UniProtKB/TrEMBL annotation:
Pfam families: Amidase (PF01425). It is an enzyme of class 3 (hydrolase). It catalyses: (5Z,8Z,11Z,14Z)-eicosatetraenamide + H2O = (5Z,8Z,11Z,14Z)-eicosatetraenoate + NH4(+); N-(9Z-hexadecenoyl) ethanolamine + H2O = (9Z)-hexadecenoate + ethanolamine; (11Z,14Z,17Z)-eicosatrienamide + H2O = (11Z,14Z,17Z)-eicosatrienoate + NH4(+); N-(9Z-octadecenoyl) ethanolamine + H2O = ethanolamine + (9Z)-octadecenoate. Keywords: Hydrolase, Lipid degradation, Lipid metabolism, Phosphoprotein. The active site is at K119, S194, S218. InterPro entries: Amidase_CS, Amidase_dom, AS_sf, Endocannabinoid_amidase. This is Fatty-acid amide hydrolase 1. It comes from Nothoprocta pentlandii. The gene is Faah_0.
Amino acid sequence: LLLRWQWRRRLWKKVKEVQLKHERGVAQMEKIWLGFRKKHPSVDAVSILSLSLPELTRKLRNGSLPPEYVFCAYVGKALQITRETNCITEYMWESETKFQQAVRPEKPGLLFGVPVSIKDSINCQGYDSTIGFASNINKPAAEDSVLVQVLKRQGAIPFVKTNVPQSLISYDCNNVIFGQTLNPTLYTRTSGGSSGGEGALIGGGGSILGFGTDLGGSLRLPAAFCGICALKPTGNRLRYCKYMNALFWSPPVVAAVGPMAKKVETLVLAMRALLCEDMFNLDSTVPPLPFNEEVYSSTKPLRIGYYETDFFTMPSPSMRRAVREMKQLLEDAGHTLVPFELDNINYYIFNLCVRGLFADGGSSFCKKFKGELVQGNMGLLLWMARTPDWLKTVLSWITKPFGLLINGIQRLRCFTSLSSTVEDLWSLHYEIEESCHKFIAQWKKLNLDVMLCPVLGPALPVGYPGKLAVATSYTILYNCLDFPAGVVPVTTVTDEDEDEMENYKGHYGDRWDRILAKGFSGSVGLPVAVQCVALPWQEELCLRFMREVEKL
């Protein structure tokens, strides 16, 4: 007990030290902004911040807009947003010298002079990638991740790192080091996670382009909650580190790295910049597939599958309305909409997704928390992972008479050591592959190009995601299948949506459904998005569909 106390004391000391370092970084951002305003009082920062990325890069590349003006404008706005939402974890000090030394080359990169924000878990040389763990403090990355290297070669200037939930296995955004990140639209709501710092910063206008990761909706949920766009590519279309999952195990459910921005055209320019020879040479496991302009630029009418519910997480009235309204708009624009029926979503969520994430019964997950400072709802997740298998089974059946079938049996039993042998793990991989082929067969039978479907929204109150892990069903499905998927905000919650919440019961009427109903309530004015999906390796088609949704 004494040794444990001493160890925790040392960890808390490290946390206090990094918090002071964070404050110094914020103070430096303020110094830069105030110094710039004093030096250039006539420069209109608002007009710079209002430029689209194509407009901004054009001005930076032709020399009509100095990189210093752009950098300082975004530092000033990022400073404001992080003070409101607590979204930035580190200011990257060397970014100042980058714009000062930014001499426009004869052939500037596609992102020359553009300040970009980077999620905490993506390695940047000289900076910690804590993932919310105190034990990762003062362990700076030895080199930039492949993603960051390519961004720099394209002329981008990474200037801040952003907040994440502890372990990344959450769609809230809170950890013991940097605290809770709030939604820029309504501070009582979460920004989402795990790329929640990115969602809040970009949603508030403090970054024009950011990058996060997605293992179950970690790009798409913060984007939907904060009213911005995001693209989760096929798992290996882009690369951000030597080992695709920057956590501590390699689950069958596929993680991906992708861009986040307010506009689809920004995502497109980011993908153009990243899908280049530098990416393919730095990591030879990335397939050399340059951005396909012909597919993206096509105006051919699309054949679009759609569904309003996955029959697992009942959509909020605004989620359902968003899909219905987009269906009508797309049909009016000449596209063909075809109903798509999801089959056995329970099997996908529990037998494939959850079982895939915790294929060893949560053993690797628990090891990472050994001796760690734990905060919030991670304690419940750890308890379930650490509970002996026999006790999980007993407790799951005890809950059955109370009607908590999904909440009790499935939640507890999915943490049993399902893949205790190599044979079990091989079986899991086979089941995922087989399910993927069945899904594609259904897709091709209907001759679909893309899919329109809901994404969880509006943003839930702070702390609610920890009680509602299963509500990620709309997004985690496409990690399991490894399909590219993006989100586009299309509407906001109306008074009529709020009135309809009085009749919201959920598909099961259990505790989770009741908590979700409470979380959806009181959300008038908050953004609501739809999800756009394509088949593996068809990111350009997915973006083309997202562009159409955004335009309509």
